[in-house]
Amino acid sequence: MFYNLLFPLHPYINFFNLFGYVTFRTSGAIMTALIICFLIAPRMIRWLKAKQKEGQPIREDGPETHFKKAGTPTMGGLMILISVTISTFLWADLADPFVWLALLVMVGYGLIGFGDDYLKLTKKNPKGLSGKHKLLGQFGLAFLVSIGIVFCLPEAYSTHVAPPFFKNVLFNLSWFFIPWSMLVIVGSSNAVNLTDGLDGLAIVPVAIVAACFGLISYLVGNFKFAEYLFIPFVPGAAELSIICGALIGGAMGFLWYNAPPAAIFMGDTGSLAMGGLLGTIAVMVKHEIVLAIVGGLFVLETVSVIIQVTSFKLTGKRVFAMAPIHHHFEKKGWSEPTIVIRFWIIAIILALIGLATLKLR
């Protein structure tokens, strides 16, 4: 909104020229989301505690240490969604369709997660919304948004995938790009959701991935940088840096209250929304495969669940003491802060590897 209202005035007041810089507006988005989160969090936590009474249901088959967390309210993802949405409206170019598509996924998936969290609380059941209904909603919205992305991308490579490490190599998926895009968005959403099992475990890697894709979006949206790095140039993609910045600010604000011992959990309201948002941005900037590298921690958590389920169904035996893999280490005796911090380190290393693909071509 600031860009649309104030930047046109820069010929008359030179100061307003700042609003033409994506870097300036991204910084503003980070600080705005962080401040909003700090302002609304205390009241929201008190309100959620009053409404939820017993807090998020704890899995009976989960690690024993989790029972001491009983009574902690969930749905904290609401404060992230509110702060990111307001901050994006204030600092992004509202004429950019990529911004609206990204927000649509975030809010839509947030609503799906909200429904899941609500059922968990009202039914006193940690399973919440059935997997079929959850996936139906996720794939349905991903389908609509994927069509929108195809029409917003440059026609020359709107249905193409750009693999990392190769210069000017594009694979045209034609109409198979729609299922591909849906898979990336839904897969990213659920991967973050699976990772959200310990205090602070998911939110910091989300901020790290958001920072990486904030940079990637800026580079992809700048013709000179895109040409220099041999990556696809996507006009308007730089505005996605602002929503990535808002996500960083919102994530850091939430972490203040989610740090061990957590005063609030993000719930599916936050994890599904943030994962879906990151997947959508990756599709828009043609770096879906890089997302799997930068967000490799989320991939690891997802793969551990797939291995566990497949092994148990085929052989009746479990590979891990418990899945996702962070619970495996809990069962092995690792303390929660040890697991969280070590997983953060892994996330940072994978992010650096993913960013290296921009130059290693």
Written account of the structure:
- This protein is mostly helical and 361 residues long.
- It has one domain (2-356).
- 65% of the residues lie in helices and 1% in strands.
- It contains 14 helices and two strands, in the order H-H-H-H-H-E-E-H-H-H-H-H-H-H-H-H.
- The protein has a two-stranded antiparallel ribbon with strand order 1-2.
- The two termini are 37 Å apart.
- 48% of the residues are buried.
- The mean pLDDT is 91.
Number of helical elements: 14
Number of domains: 1
- Oligomer state equals single chain
* Radius of gyration, whole Å: 20 Å
Q: Average pLDDT across residues?
A: 91
Please list the strands of the largest sheet in the order they lie side by side: 1-2
> Helical proportion?
55-70%
Name the shape in a single word.
globular
Strand elements, count: 2
Q: Poorly predicted ranges (pLDDT <50, ≥5 residues)?
A: none
Q: List the secondary-structure elements in sequence, H or E.
A: HHHHHEEHHHHHHHHH
The amount of beta strand, in percent, is under 5%
Which class best fits the helix and strand makeup? mainly alpha
How far the N terminus sits from the C terminus, by CA atoms, comes to: 37 Å
Main sheet overview:
2 strands, antiparallel
